Predict the 3D structure of the following.
Amino acid sequence: MTQLILLHEDDNVLVVVAPIRAGDALPVAGGTVPAREGITIGHKVARIALQPGDRVIKYGAPIGSMIAPAQAGDWVHLHNMRSDYIAAHLRSAPEERE
Amino acid sequence: MIEGFLRRDGRKGIRNVVAVAYLVECAHHVARRIVDRADDPDVHLIGFPGCFPNAYAARVMEAIATHPNVGGVVLVSLGCESFNRERLAEIVRASGRPVELLVIQEIGGTAATIAAGIAAVERVRQQARETPRAAMALDELVIGTICGGSDGTSGITANPAVGRAFDRLVAAGATCIFEETGELVGCETIMAERAITPELGHEIEACVHKAERYYTTMGFGSFAPGNAEGGLTTQEEKSMGAYSKSGSSPISGIIKPGDVPPTGGLYLLDVVPDGEPRFGFPNISDNAEIVEMIACGAHLTLFTTGRGSVVGSAISPVIKICANPETARRLAADMDVDAGRILEGEASLAEVGDEIFDCVTAVAGGARSVSEALGHREFILTYKAFDPIGPACLPLAGRASA
């Protein structure tokens, strides 16, 4: 079953469409890599190696920038990327902002 | 064919609702009890909780009390609040609808007003039943779309499927409205290119920049914790997914809450207040957006969800399109359309788009949407401030009145 889809040819991330378990072989640019961790539907995986400062491209459009490196096949989310506009917030955010 | 309810102003509704409206929170309990006692799926509770005056709230209440889906209105006032109840009653009366005004302090308190309200609803309902029916074409239909509880699947299944349905509806002459400029941050450049005039394109960019400034002042984007849990990382990523609900039709204009689009076509609803931020977040929850859609004439709203919203709305039915296949299984009894099948390779975007289109015509024809059948009648209206739209926002307005 397909676990990752490419939305646009310019994208450097893939979208998870079926749950990924650690060790699953993930198709990325240039071959497959084993998944480091479980990743759920709707999340993103690096299609290529990404460096801090790289624009993250999804739907063929920039959706933010990397703040930490990721290898091809790694989960891309709040721990390694951020908005170029308005910061995202989690449930704990209001307290942390004090 | 859709058999609509023909109103005196020539507009047609797909429902014939009696709206019971509280004009301040202090009248909410009495109004709610009147609606509960009426026990009729077509008697709905609406209202505005504030005691201080607000031109926006008054305008939205006027627009909804004279919405084509509304056949008559019962107003419930405490008596000392600032809402101009006489003006609202007069506007409803002038629209040719039955209206009754109950003032709790004059009638003699809670129990007496509830009793008077039950009788008033019965009289208004009787008159509303006499509304003539008339054939209603797709080009007389106004359809809004919003997304709520979005996740990483929303932007690849339900939202683009709604976009396909919107393309078909716009091609058939219907009026389609998309919104939440705060959820379009990052899309302004590509969106402006779809405007029917360059001046409108500039206005589109300006209203998204306004949204970005406003949300930055609030300290939060339009991005809930569940969005991140569902795989969305940034505001602009959520925006790109939300934007796909608009489909690919040209953008015919920008409207603000209470403005009814002058022609068929695709319109952007600017929901972010003008001026310095004063009253807090633009829309504190999804239902505030739905209420604004209805104030712009929406007969029904297409609501996409990935995490699984269950809400409906008073006045205009909500059709729920589920983006995420896992949510679609867990909350199956709350969804009208399962767009999660696209992810599992069981349906194409075009097929689900057609299914949404068919659902629109069925619900417009009188079939109850799932949230409607479950009794969801949410309504919320809060404080805002708007300037009127600029002259470049509605390039087709002159053509409509000509």
Observations:
- The interface with chain A takes residues 151-153, 155-156, 185-187, 190, 212, 215-216, 219-221, 223, 225, 227-228, 230-237, 240-241, 244, 306, 324-326, 343-345 of chain B (CB under 8 Å).
- Chain B has a mean pLDDT of 95.
- The two ends of chain B are 29 Å apart (CA to CA).
- Chain B has 15 helices and 14 strands.
